[in-house]
Amino acid sequence: MIRLEGATLLTPEEECPQGVLCIDKDRITYAGPADGAPAAQPGDEIVDLPGRAIIPGFVNAHTHLAMQLLRGIADDVALAPWLTDHIWPVEDRMGEDDVLAGTRLALLEAVASGVTAVNDMYMAMDRVAEAIGEAGIRGVITQGLIGNADPGRGKLRVGTELYERWQGGYGGRIQVALGPHAPYTCDPHYLVEVAQAAKALDARVHIHLAETHQETRDLAAEGRTPAHVLLDSGLSEQPVIAAHYVAPAESDFALLEGMRVGIAHCPVSNLKLGCGFAPVARFRAHGIPVGLGSDGAASANVLDPFLSMKAAAWIAKGSTQDPTQLSARTVLRMATHEGALALGLADVGLLAPGFLADVVVVDLRAPHLQPVFDVASALVYTATARDVERVYASGRLLFAEGRHLLVDAPEILSQAQRAAQRIAQRQILS
Ligand SMILES: [Zn+2]
């Protein structure tokens, strides 16, 4: 049994100063005040953590981890030319080794900043599954499907075979979804085929939806809305993770209420690509869970969940001129349990008995965090990824005091540098 003592716990109900968190194997068995905690037993590992906060691990609800290798390759460009002129041509020249190197690099950053679950869409997903497995966290993985370039449906087969190979892998840490990339890259017939495949497997669906206002206008010109895309194709018969959703049609809110849809809000990527502001408070008012995602490092440049939380709060307040929107506690919940719910991970993201022991210790003692009147406020508005001190996933310590304990970080960094050089060289030669 592991006992974390002396820190402020953010349990679902309250801030619990000087609390105790007990972990037995991969589960939390107790989270609350010291005076209600079970007595320590001989052999327990006791960690004393005064001045720290303990929170659930962050859930990155939408990302493309391997794009870590493309960080900074094309900044200050709009989404459509960014994809067609910059990203897709480079991705066409990336091999499986590049995907593995980029994903491992991304997971170094993610784990060190307190992320213990990711929802990833990319290619060469066997390599991504391996990287997530060796990093010790959990992940929902999805082969990205560009339907308009999948004439023999070979990619759709790759996506379904991935499900058969990896669903429940690494002791349940890997889940597999089917990933039609977006309505503008997958025609309606293709989306119907994906929906049928998802239904046959009983798989979750992961799709980019309403990522720009132009996308929603283009759908309107065809008499459709983003929510209608899910409904008409049959995709909404399965649970769906819709990434971005910055531009819902007015009628979408009511339609989404009747679906099992969760939204991955990616505020940093949306701001950087100039896509707009997802109406998060309105989605949540309709009972739709909204998690936070980074998107890939090629668009967002960072995977830092603390920055995603700040951006989500700032956008919600700034875009509505209402500073009461999305309190610090709400944003923390979105970054953890609500993101987990959007991914179908019901026992992830709360410090409560029975939940998986995905737990992050944040050091609040640094000058830039002092004084602390409200721990949730300090975590959302002040703390950064650099303040993460310890990260546990499934009760296993992955990262402590600046060091990765499961993976060889220097080796991963040098592999990533070599892969980035290969990509740069191919760019020059092409
Ligand atoms: Zn994306």
Structure overview:
Strand 9 (174-180), helix 6 (188-201) and strand 10 form a beta-alpha-beta unit. The protein has helices at 79-92, 96-112, 125-135, 154-166, 169-172, 188-201, 213-221, 226-233, 252-257, 267-272, 280-285, 297-300, 305-320, 328-342, 375-382, 409-429, and strands spanning 2-10, 15-24, 27-33, 45-48, 52-56, 58-63, 115-122, 138-145, 174-180, 204-209, 240-244, 261-265, 290-292, 359-363, 388-393, 396-400, 403-404. Strands 1, 2, 3, 4, 5, 14, 15, 16 and 17 form a 9-stranded mixed sheet that branches. Strands 6-7-8-9-10-11-12-13 form an 8-stranded parallel sheet. It is globular and about 65 Å long. The mean pLDDT is 95. It contains 16 helices and 17 strands. The protein has 430 residues and is α/β, with parallel strands linked by helices. Helix 2 (96-112) runs parallel beside helix 3, helix 4 packs parallel to helix 6 and helix 14 (328-342) packs across helix 15 (375-382). The protein is 40% helix and 23% strand. It has 2 domains: 2-56 and 353-404, Roll (Urease, subunit C, domain 1), CATH 2.30.40.10; 58-342, TIM Barrel (Alpha-Beta Barrel), CATH 3.20.20.
